[in-house]
Amino acid sequence: MKLVECPRDAMQGLHDFVPTDLKIRYLNTLLRVGFDTLDFGSFVSPKAIPQLADTAEVLAGLDLSGTQTKLLAIVANRRGAEQAAGYQQIQYVGFPLSMSETFQQRNTNKTIEQAFVEVAEIQHLSVGAGQQLVVYLSMGFGNPYGDPYSPELVSAFTERLAQMGIGIVAPSDTVGTSTPETIETLFRHLLAEFPAIEFGAHLHARPGDCSAKVRAALRAGVDRIDGALRGFGGCPMATDDLTGNLPTEEIIQTLHQEGVRFTLDEQAFAEAMQLSAEVFF
Fold this sequence. Notes:
The protein has 281 residues and is an alpha/beta fold. 42% of the residues lie in helices and 18% in strands.
């Protein structure tokens, strides 16, 4: 099981700027926990996401000497991918491709077709930089805008991504609309149709809904799950304040209950939980 910790997603919508030195302390603590991947920052316009305008400074302060955790940075366009390509420390570049035309425009000021063109360009850049592109399918479980959605449409998007050579696709429950049933149905369908692709679950949920969603993903065969300590975060372009990331501590508890075993540094995890209160309150 690959656990992806997403402090970037947790921090990006905060109103008050988290000081760079505090971000660095928090991320360095998370790097000692033993997560597979740390979604640590983004190379996007500071006008759009001012909270992460210091990503390059933060990266310079990270201690990667004793960790196996890989770094992931989100980009919203080719320019961001070019910036990310300049850092050998970054193994993954993430791009949000929306299933909803309305949300794609809202999130990146592009149509879906324009975004597909950009995905191809970013994939080329990432391969050249020795990085791997992770495509997040925003609104991957439906949308509130009335735009077309179906599991077959997710498959059609995935087929286009597979033809570009993209190996990791993460359907994302941007506004928390998924249910355990829709999660299991979608991932069973995708895993059977695209066995060569690694599928990740980037789910958002209301309080109390995490465990059932994780179990549904597990039943479908998913072995890559995103979370954030205490369930902080969610998309700032969405509107439901109660819908946050899956709480990492609840993901871990659920996985243990389901017999999934992995090794984390419990002391570092406890320190990160304590420090998260300083970052987010």
